[in-house]
């Protein structure tokens, strides 16, 4: 089998100026041996909607044929009783997507499907393939025709060119050529495969539940999906592991790893615990909610200040603010109320209202804040413009002092592993001091959780996570990182 060289070129990844904040990546779900596979996949995707809101899809397996339904938009908008009833079969995989690589087009919506020599295959992916531009160019030179612009399609082309008639072998040898972050679920006519990259950047977990057909197995990006469907959490899919689920049960194998491409042995994304994952999930063997509370506790130890109240920026800062309050003894209050019914777009009034974009989502409570010295907690600070507007709202509501505390270290570098981040020049901490940022956002003081403090709160070594967005130290080769295209799509 031909292996493609991953050291031919080096490009850089750029992000559109219009994208100013962290964006969730993607979520995957799979179920084997259940009579309601499509409906449970729908629920599993619904539980993971926070991981991607641009498109979603479900593919089922019935009489050795794949049945597909996918579209642009939210899970509740794309699926209904009618189209779910057409997704028959006892096995299914699903996907919610945010376009970290490739435009928001229906051709990029997942799962992707193809008819290979050894039968129909569907694949869903969370992550980002760092060397995808090198692999894509090599495949195109040899005649491969790509239908979309996302990096997941590369896996299907590699598998199609693999000489083995065994799906597990073809998948393994194809995945071993990929550098970067990937949590895959793959469905063929007789099995489901689940796999994580050798460093385990993105989460992937195994669960089980009993159905009328016997034992059913489920795979998801986050354990919160199991809670909704009543499945029992079993374990994580290990970094570099390929799990095969079939009528014979479970079978596992390890990939062969070229250690020269990696600077550490494992690198799960620490930002899953800072922001991305739902707080009621267990990710990388730890409770996300407890991690965020501990971040707040450590932040209180490192940067305590005399104040009357601790308030979170909802919803991302709530757990850390609780931890900060409990450790410092300063009362916790909801000084800001979030409007949970704001959609992705809204119509602005004809007459401009200052900071309307923030005000439509967040409202400061004057009766709580008036005359008070306030510590406001958030999970991260990216560009600073939103923090600037929130601090202004708090002071307009009567807060006499506003002390900003960030429950993660300063963000100084973009992510190349499946999270859509602004380019380095748009990350305020990459080119301004903490004092300069404080002055820009209008806070009376500003402190971040230290990198050392973050890992102390996690009780883990820095070398057991990827924290490149905070440290600038990337755990893989960045050969072949590509420029990301962004477009506005009207549907």
How would you describe the overall organization of this protein?
There is one protein chain. This protein has 491 residues and is an alpha+beta fold. It folds into two domains: 26-267, 4-Layer Sandwich (Glutamine Phosphoribosylpyrophosphate, subunit 1, domain 1), CATH 3.60.20.10; 282-340 and 353-471, 3-Layer(aba) Sandwich (Rossmann fold). Helix content is 26%, strand content 25%. The strands form five sheets. Strands 3-2-4-1-10-9-11 form a seven-stranded antiparallel beta sheet. It has a six-stranded antiparallel beta sheet with strand order 5-6-7-8-12-13. A four-stranded parallel beta sheet has the order 16-19-20-21, with helices on both faces. The two termini are 42 Å apart. Residues 4-20 and 483-491 have low confidence and may be disordered.
Summarize the structure.
With 491 residues, this protein is α+β, with helices and mostly antiparallel strands. Helices cover 26% and strands 25% of the residues.
**Helix count, DSSP H or I runs of 4 or more residues:** 16
Secondary-structure arrangement, i.e. CATH architecture of the largest domain: 4-Layer Sandwich
Strand order of the largest sheet: 3-2-4-1-10-9-11
Number of strands: 21
Major sheet size, sense and barrel closure: 7 strands, antiparallel
Q: What radius of gyration results from the CA coordinates?
A: 23 Å
The portion of residues assigned to helices is 25-40%
**Average residue pLDDT:** 88
The CATH class name of the largest domain reads Alpha Beta
Class of secondary structure makeup: alpha+beta
CATH superfamily of the largest domain: Aminohydrolase, N-terminal nucleophile (Ntn) domain
**Count of domain modules:** 2
């Amino acid at each position: 089998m031909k292996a493609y060289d991953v050291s031919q070129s080096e490009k850089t990844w750029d992000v559109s100026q219009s994208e100013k904040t962290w964006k969730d990546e993607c979520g995957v779900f799979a179920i084997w041996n259940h009579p309601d596979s499509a409906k449970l996949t729908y629920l599993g995707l619904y539980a993971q909607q926070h991981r991607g809101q641009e498109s979603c899809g479900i593919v089922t397996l019935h009489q050795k044929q794949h049945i597909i339904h996918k579209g642009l938009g939210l899970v509740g908008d794309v699926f209904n009783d009618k189209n779910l009833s057409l997704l028959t079969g006892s096995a299914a995989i699903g996907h919610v997507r945010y376009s970290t690589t490739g435009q928001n087009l229906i051709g990029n919506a997942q799962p992707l499907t193809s008819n290979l020599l050894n039968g129909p295959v569907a694949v869903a992916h969370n992550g980002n393939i760092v060397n995808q531009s090198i692999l894509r160019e090599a495949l195109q030179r040899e005649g491969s025709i790509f239908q979309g612009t996302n990096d997941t399609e590369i896996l299907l082309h590699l598998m199609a060119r693999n000489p083995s008639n065994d799906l597990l072998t073809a998948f393994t040898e194809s995945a071993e050529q990929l550098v970067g972050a990937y949590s895959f679920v793959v469905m063929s006519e007789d099995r489901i495969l689940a796999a994580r990259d050798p460093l385990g950047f993105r989460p992937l977990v195994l669960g089980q539940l009993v159905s009328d057909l016997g034992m059913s197995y489920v795979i998801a990006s986050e354990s919160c999906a199991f809670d909704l469907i009543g499945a029992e959490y079993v374990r994580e899919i290990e970094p570099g592991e390929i799990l095969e689920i079939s009528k014979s049960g479970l079978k596992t194998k390890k990939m062969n790893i070229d250690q020269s491409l990696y600077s550490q042995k494992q690198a799960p994304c620490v930002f899953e615990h800072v922001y991305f994952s739902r707080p009621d999930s267990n990710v990388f063997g730890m409770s996300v909610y407890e991690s965020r509370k501990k971040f707040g506790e450590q932040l209180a130890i490192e940067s305590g200040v005399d104040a009357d109240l601790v308030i979170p920026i909802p919803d991302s800062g709530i757990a850390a603010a609780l931890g900060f309050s409990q450790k410092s003894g300063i009362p916790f209050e909801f000084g800001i109320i979030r409007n949970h019914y704001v959609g992705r777009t809204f119509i602005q009034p004809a007459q401009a209202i200052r900071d309307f974009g923030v005000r439509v989502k967040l409202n400061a409570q004057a009766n709580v804040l008036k005359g008070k010295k306030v510590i406001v907690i958030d999970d991260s600070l990216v560009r600073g413009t939103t923090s600037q507007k929130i601090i202004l709202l708090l002071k307009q509501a009567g807060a006499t002092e506003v002390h900003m505390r960030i429950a993660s270290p300063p963000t100084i570098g973009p992510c190349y592993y499946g999270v859509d981040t602004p380019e380095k020049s748009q990350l305020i901490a990459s080119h301004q001091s903490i004092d300069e940022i404080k002055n820009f956002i209008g806070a009376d003081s500003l402190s971040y959780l230290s990198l050392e403090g973050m890992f102390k709160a996690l009780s883990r070594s820095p070398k057991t996570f990827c924290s490149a967005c905070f440290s600038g130290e990337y755990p893989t080769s960045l050969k072949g990182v590509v420029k990301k295209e962004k477009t506005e799509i009207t549907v």
